[in-house]
Amino acid sequence: MTVKILALDTATENCSVALLTDDGIYFRSEVAPRDHTKKILPMVDDVLKEAGLSLNDLDALAFGRGPGSFTGVRIGIGIAQGLAFGADLPMIGISTLEAMAQGVYRKHGESAVATAIDARMSEIYWGRFLRQEDGSWLAQDAECVISPALVVEKSIDDENTWFTAGTGWEAYSDLLTQLPFRREISSIVYPDAQDIVSLAKIELLKGNTVSVEEASPVYLRDKVTWKKLPGRE
Questions:
Q1: d(C-alpha 10, C-alpha 130), whole Å
Q2: Which H or E element spans position 80?
Q3: Pairing state of beta strands 91-94 and 112-118?
Q4: Which of 43, 72, 185, 220 stands 20 to 30 A from 167 (CA)?
Q5: DSSP state, residue 210
Q6: What is the C-alpha separation between 223 and 200, in angstroms, rounded?
Q7: Contact status, residue 75 vs residue 40, Cβ threshold 8 Å
Q8: How many CB atoms lie within 10 A of CB 2?
Q9: What is the pTM assigned to this prediction?
Q10: pLDDT tens digits, residue range 127-180?
Q11: What pLDDT sits at residue 223?
Q12: CB-side neighbour CA atoms (13 Å) of 164
């Protein structure tokens, strides 16, 4: 079965769009931490024009559902909902951690991936995944927000060599180097829409879509620190 899916992600510093068609994947990606709202829609226009398609030609719209930056996740979902609503498309939310695992497979062909995004506040968004025969990823460690020290404390060695992905590995390298399992460094630092769209195809073929109204973020953390402005209580 051939499908056409547009995917976008702004959950981290990377801003990316990908369009899956019969001819392959058209994509744009740029690290632009403060310019997501300026970059994302022109990227959408670019890939649609390159493929010669419109939103109404698509079967679904996928998005990075988090975890990641609170603002970035909200921007991505909000724009995705607007596009999907206008074209009456079902939506597919994909974990940004799983997308990084897929990126490791795409780049290195590896099937055991440990992901860590710097979540600030001395914490990381953490997950470990094993690739399955159908191309999906099985969580070995459930996605969570956790301190690097606690990850080290709770982890045990196993037979796998885990390929690392995400900004957390560099941000907390002094702690994460103490992990007991074998690790190799990958080139994947951020999630990318071309990996989101590949995972979204699997979900679409399984019938795992939601309506625009049901599309929701996964923050993992229910609080955020911010500096109070003068006069704000």
A1: 24
A2: helix 70-87
A3: unpaired
A4: 43
A5: B
A6: 29
A7: yes
A8: 9
A9: 0.93
A10: 999 999 999 999 999 999 999 999 999 999 999 999 999 999 999 999 999 999
A11: 52
A12: 19
Which among 123, 126, 119 is positioned nearest to 68, based on CA atoms? 119
Say which residues have a Cβ less than 8 Å from residue 85's Cβ, sequence separation at least 6: 212
Taken as a whole, the chain contains a residue count of: 233
The b/e string for 143-179 (b: 16+ C-beta within 10 A; e otherwise) is: bbbbbbeebeeebeeeebebbbbbbbbebbeebbeeb
Residue 153 CB-half CA count within 13 A: 5
Angle at 23 between CA 21 and CA 25, to 5 degrees: 60
Residue 230 has pLDDT above 80, yes or no: no
Q: Are 68 and 116 contacting, i.e. CB atoms less than 8 angstroms apart? A: no
Cis amide bond preceding 67, omega within 30: yes
The HSE-up count of residue 178 (CA atoms within 13 Å, CB side) is 10
Residue ranges of domains in the chain, CATH in brackets: 5-95+191-205 (3.30.420.40), 103-185 (3.30.420.40)
**How many CB atoms are located within 10 Å of the residue 104 CB?**
26
Structure tokens at 154: 């709770």
In the structure encoding, which two tokens stand for residue 24, read together? 């392959």
Looking at every residue in the chain, the average pLDDT score rounds to 94
Residues with Cβ within 8 Å of 4's Cβ and at least 6 positions away in sequence, in order, are: 19, 20, 21, 22, 53, 57, 58, 59
- Look at residue 221 in the predicted model and tell me its pLDDT: 83
